[in-house]
Amino acid sequence: xxxxxxxxxxxxxxxxxxxxxxxxxxxxxxxxxxxxxxxxxxxxxxxxxxxxxxxxxxxxxxxxxxxxxxxxxxxxxxxxxxxxxxxxxxxxxxxxxxxxxxxxxxxxxxxxxxxxxxxxxxxxxxxxxxxxxxxxxxxxxxxxxxxxxxxxxxxxxxxxxxxxxxxxxxxxxxxxxxxxxxxxxxxxxxxxxxxxxxxxxxxxxxxxxxxxxxxxxxxxxxxxxxxxxxxxxxxxxxxxxxxxxxxxxxxxxxx
Length: 255
What we know:
By secondary structure, this protein is mainly alpha-helical. 69% of the residues lie in helices and 2% in strands. It has one domain (6-254). The chain contains ten helices and two strands; from the N terminus they run ααβαααβααααα. Strands 1-2 form a two-stranded parallel sheet.
């Protein structure tokens, strides 16, 4: 695609800022404020806690309703970028790196990526805890209802879809439209990914920045977002659902 004119560039920049302001850019801003708040407290950051999935009501039925509403509305920016980059010709979402031509291969690649990234990610977190640089991350504080596991799995899917479609698919397309180079885009999007995880501590920034570099490089090489979505969803699902079991089985490690 040829580089846009000055007026079009301004519109693209405005569009990017609006999309990020409605989604992960806002998360990054809150994360910076959160880590600043944590670092300026008298309590050491290693003694502080961040809960990823909290109860939204003390009434189970309304907690479920609020959880589902939260997941639904968090996915609206994904629908927005799909609308913005929709193409008349098939595959309609090719500019986002999305098509369903190779579901089996995409699934296998996603599983392999999840294994390759998930285990080192746990190591980074545990190292950060050992060094006193990470908060105690509690993946879920939901009570045990019949809907708890399905909601946690939906939350993992929300994270995988939102982050990979917006940070990889959308931003790579729009920053290319602005004339950015390959590694400029990879580093910038990896920095964004690290920043909105900064509330967990600096090791979380480093780990997610490294993940962003890998995912960005893979996307520029293969142009497919679905394996990244699958990998991200599997990693978060394992953390959200598997953490209570791991914490109960290895209390010394996760204390």
